[in-house]
Structure formats: structure tokens, C-alpha cells
Amino acid sequence: MWILPLAATVIAGAFAVLLARQFVARRGQAQLLWAIAMGMFAIASAAVTIGVASGWTTTLYGIYWALGAVLNVAFLAGGELVLLFRRPWVVWVVWVVLVFATAYTVAVVSGADMVADALTVRLPRGVKVLGDGTPAHRLAQLVAYPAYLVLVLGTLWSAWKMRGRPELKARFVGTLLIAVGATIVAAGAAFAATGVLAGFIGTLVVGVCAMFWGFLWASRPVVVPDAADAVMTAPPA
């Protein structure tokens, strides 16, 4: 069973590298934020791989919870906001919010009193490990859930603006696939909350594959119909 989260680790890592390369080439803040998000996703998936294969520790679970259950979707949403609004002040606000959210999450998770007995199963449940209603357990509700709504609504709005434009068909499809992939990963939280390992790992792999596929589609060059020799390679919306 550990092979599947390992696959998610590799895919997310490759995704992060491609995004980082785009950032280096274009200096786009959206690509940087998404690269960080997918790097977090890869590290969290690696923690799941080790936990499933050889047993969980409080350190492994803290990494998985902070990076996989809370912060990665916040950075994805931040990248979407930067791409949608394209204003310097938006970039500053997004970074300030994300730095604060990261510092708060790390502080809360590192100080959490985890229940060791709850880590003996193959997929520990957050409510059992962290305690129902504790600050660490509520991090997902406080950070990840609102960020997921921002991400999905932002990508759907981007797709809506591209409708009816044949030259943007690939970007339109890619944007929708990214939203679908994020939704699949979010749906995996239901399996994680109930301790269903197969469902959680399945949604993890399928979701990250859908986002990666969407990114590849959205990154295709766009040929402007009125000037066939003009090619625009702007980042995916």
C-alpha cells in the first residue's frame, strides 16, 4: 500500500520542479507559490509513505498534518489570487498572510500533545491523534477549508473568462482539470477523517495526477488566431 503514496510523492515532486523552473524563467509569483505548495505536497506524501510502510511517529504525523492537511492548499490558493488580480499589493498581502499562516501552523502543530496510541494504525485520524476541537485539529478548518474555496472558485472564474475562445481551449481544459484535481484531493480528507487508507491514498494519487495533467494542458503555447506566428506562453490561469 505504501507504493501509491510514494507515486504521489514522485509526481508532486516533479510538478514542483517544473513550477520552480517556470518561476526561474519568468519570475512569476504564482509559479513560486505553486512550486512551494507542490513541494509541501510531496513532503507530506513522503511522510505518509514512511508512516504506512514502517509506522508513524509524532514527527511524521506533524509533517503530514502541517504540510498536507493544512498549508499546501493555502499556497495553491495564494498563487491563484496572485494570478487573478495581478497587482503588486495583492502579492504583498498574499505573502504576509501565508507567512503568518505558516508560522502559526508550525507553532501549533509542534506544540500539540499527540496521543501516541492513536499512531499505531496505518492511517491515524486527526481527531484521535490531536484531539477533537484542539487548536491543532482545527487548523484544517481555519486554514485549508477557506483556502480550498478560494482555489476552486478562482480556477472556475479563470475558466469562465476563457470560455468561447478556441485559442485558449487547452488552457481552459487545464484550468478545469486543476480544479477537479484539487477537489479530488480535498475529498480524500473524508477518507482520512474516517481512517480509510485505500480511499485516502487513491484520492491522493488521482488528485495530484489530475492537477499535474491540468498544468501540462494549461502550459501549452497559445496561438493567437489573428496572428498565427505570435505565440503567447503566459502561465496557466
Overview of this protein structure:
- The protein has one domain (about 5-230): Rhopdopsin 7-helix transmembrane proteins, CATH 1.20.1070.
- About 75% of the residues lie in helices and about 0% in strands.
- The protein has helices spanning about 5-25, 30-55, 60-85, 90-110, 125-130, 140-160, 170-195, 195-220, and strands at about 220-225, 230.
- It has about 240 residues and is mostly helical.
- It has 8 helices and 2 strands, in the order ααααααααββ.
- It has a two-stranded antiparallel ribbon with strand order 1-2.
- Strand 1 and strand 2 (about 230) form a beta hairpin.
User: What is the alpha-carbon Rg in Å?
Assistant: 18 Å
Quaternary form: single chain
Cα distance spanning the termini: 34 Å
Structural class: mainly alpha
Give a short account of the largest sheet.
2 strands, antiparallel
- Uncertain ranges: 227-237
Per DSSP, the total helix count is 8
Number of strands: 2
Which H/E pattern describes the elements? Answer: HHHHHHHHEE
Spatial order of strands in the largest sheet: 1-2
Mean pLDDT, to the nearest integer, reads 87
Query: What's the CATH topology name?
Result: Rhopdopsin 7-helix transmembrane proteins
Described by the principal axes of the CA atoms, the overall outline is globular
The helicity comes to over 70%
